[in-house]
Specification:
The complex is a heterodimer of chains A (176) and B (399). Helices cover 19% and strands 25% of the residues of chain A. Chain A contains three helices and seven strands; from the N terminus they run αββαββββαβ. Chain B is an alpha+beta fold and 399 residues long. Chain B has two domains: 56-96 and 99-293 and 330-398, Cytochrome-c3 Hydrogenase, chain B, CATH 1.10.645.10; 295-327, no CATH class. Chain B is globular. Classes of the chains: A alpha/beta (176), B alpha+beta (399). Chain A binds chain B through residues 24-25, 27, 53-57, 59-63, 65-66, 75, 77, 79, 81, 84, 88, 107-109, 111-113, 120, 133-137, 144-145, 149, 151, 174, 176, and chain B through 49-50, 53, 55, 57-59, 62-64, 93-94, 96, 220-223, 234, 236, 241-242, 324, 330-333, 335, 342, 344, 346, 348, 350, 352-354, 356-357, 359, 361, 365-366, 368-370, 373, 398-399.
């Protein structure tokens, strides 16, 4: 199916479960509310005409400086191995308590990127049995890929001096 | 363990926890697995990553588009051109530009050389892990030649940054293309040599056949990609399915396996090396003359010689160097076929000269949970065979 057909079919079948669909630079993009994500994802996977059986990646985006609502977004990209087409789901997440349901029941491989969403963006993933830090060390404070997490601040991880309170190393903002 | 009244040690459970890594020669980087062992058999394998985290995605958000390219080299450091290409294609899609034909051919040659180099390192280390030392030395010999070719065309042996937004870094000379031709003519006999050492070797067969097998459904469910996915019988290669950078013009086969075990992954990758060689050979035959980068001076620098005679060129040069490329607002994702599978960047642009978000879709990162599933039920000695067969690179796992 072409991207236009995918957007049209899905928006027609699922009705108001999909906020809106568009074709951006040739890619099929669907905007979904987090509560409808499992249902829409299951449909995308199980409908034989769509058959999005392959999870390509999950990504978080923080639109802090963009002045838009909601602030966060979780982006899912799926391929179909049989039909050779792709779709992107963009799930807007509110600034306070961003929560998104887990898709590990549908795609086993979702476990790592979902844990990364928690690790890097602080999204709560409901239904994920392992919500430890993935890349950052256990006990790390803050979520590095949020826009308000400074680029050059560093916490001193270990010090022989127990009373030493690590000072944040603040440097000038990065030049572009 | 608890200590009994008699002062003896008593086990709490029937299994033993065995720590492997993060510094272990066959984890190909700093990767840790916590194995729950029942005798020699692995019951569960719990991966732990993050030891090589360098924050490349965060850093990329604070760099101009051109400045991100050298960082993409360090993601999958065994095939930098694939990462460069994925990043540049995505940016070019946002810019809505298409590079000249000669640049596409040069990109294909570089990417396929990188695939050869990467597969040579994979074969070398994978065979070494299983105990075949000779293959290691042989593969390194041929990889050295690829690094020499890289050095001649890009000035750097490994982190080439040769592929740039709008084309390539510089043109390749006829002498260099002749050397590439010599290399691809020389390579097939060497691939035969590796195969003579391994393909029918009974020890190799014992160690690889039936080990870490995954069915087609499992491989798709665990998002394996590239050779590991094709070894499980999925005929999916982005070079064929969604040709980019002119791949539709080349005739090549996409090898697939049946059993999805370590041996099939080995066969698929070795065949891929032959096919890569075939693609380079065809590209050398058909490479057109012409510009090696786009002539739009808002994207690529004007020729040096025009700077003293053209005011416009001088302004463009100054703007590009001091401000960089302004990419229109939007977001997109372009997957390509790297040596390990689907590589792609999801880039969100806010209209400025630095990306708002750069996300790498790393094949090794996505494959790790599936890889640990494969280990369950294997012998401990097979764990290194499974890791080697997936060919993980920790640079792109931890980013």
């Amino acid at each position: 199916m072409t991207s236009e057909e995918i957007v049209e079919t899905v928006t027609q079948t699922l009705g108001d479960k999909v906020e809106r669909g568009e074709v951006a630079l040739g890619d099929a993009v669907l905007f979904i509310a987090p509560e409808h994500l499992p249902e829409v994802a299951a449909h995308l996977k199980n409908d034989p005409a769509l058959a999005f059986d392959y999870l390509s990646h999950i990504s978080g985006v923080d639109y802090l400086d963009e002045d838009r609502e909601p602030r966060f977004e979780a982006v899912y990209e799926f391929h179909s191995m049989d039909h050779n087409h792709s779709v992107r789901l963009r799930v807007g997440l509110a600034e306070e308590n961003p929560t998104v349901p887990s898709l590990t029941g549908l795609w086993g491989a979702a476990v790592y990127p979902e844990r990364e969403l928690y690790d890097m963006f602080g999204f709560t993933i409901t239904g994920l049995d392992n919500d430890k830090r993935l890349i950052m060390p256990e006990g790390w404070e803050g979520f590095p890929l949020r826009k308000d997490y400074p680029l050059t601040t560093e916490d001193i991880a270990f010090s022989h001096n127990r009373d030493y309170k690590s000072e944040l190393v603040k440097s000038k903002p990065p030049t572009r | 363990m608890t200590v009994t009244e008699q002062g003896l040690l008593e086990r709490d459970k029937d299994t033993m926890t065995l720590n492997m890594g993060p510094s272990h020669p066959s984890t190909h980087g700093v990767f840790r697995i916590i194995l729950e062992m029942d005798g020699e058999l692995v019951k569960t394998a719990e991966p732990e990553i993050g030891y090589l985290h360098t924050g490349i995605e965060k850093t990329s958000e604070n760099k101009r588009y051109q400045h991100v390219i050298p960082m993409t080299d360090r993601l999958d450091y065994l095939s930098p051109p694939s990462n460069n290409l994925a990043f540049c294609l995505t940016t070019e899609k946002l810019l809505q530009i298409r590079v000249p034909e000669r640049a596409e051919y040069l990109r294909v040659i570089m990417c396929e050389l990188a695939r050869l180099g990467s597969h040579l390192v994979w074969l070398a280390t994978h065979a070494l892990d299983i105990g075949a030392m000779t293959v290691f030395l042989y593969c390194w010999r041929e990889r050295e030649m690829i690094l020499d070719l890289n050095e001649e065309v890009a000035g750097v042996r490994m982190m080439t940054s040769y592929i740039r937004i709008g084309g390539t870094m510089r043109d390749a000379s006829a002498a260099w293309l002749r050397k590439v031709r010599q290399f691809v003519d020389y390579l097939p006999s060497k691939i035969d040599e590796y195969e003579r050492l391994l393909t029918k070797n009974p020890i190799w067969l014992d160690r690889t056949q039936g080990v870490g097998a995954m069915t087609r459904e499992e491989a798709i469910n665990w998002s394996l990609s590239g050779p590991a996915l094709r070894a499980s019988g999925v005929d999916f290669d982005f070079r064929k399915q969604r040709p980019y950078s002119g791949y539709e013009e080349f005739r090549f086969e996409v090898p697939t396996g049946k059993n999805g075990d370590v041996y099939d992954r080995y066969l698929v990758r070795v065949e891929e090396m032959r096919q890569s060689r075939e693609i380079i050979s065809q590209a050398l035959d058909a490479i057109p003359a012409g510009p090696y980068k786009i002539e739009d001076n808002k994207v690529s620098l004007p020729p040096r010689s025009t700077l003293h005679s053209s005011m416009e060129a001088l302004i463009h040069h100054f703007k590009l160097v001091s401000e960089g490329i302004h990419v229109p607002r939007g977001e997109t994702y372009v997957p390509i076929e790297g040596p390990r599978g689907e590589v792609g960047f999801y880039i969100v642009s806010d209209g400025g000269n630095a990306p708002l978000r750069v996300k790498l879709r790393a094949p090794s990162f996505m494959a790790i949970p599936g890889m640990c599933k494969m280990m369950e039920g294997c012998y401990i000695a097979d764990v290194v065979a499974v890791i080697g067969s997936i060919d993980i690179v920790m640079g792109e796992v931890d980013r």
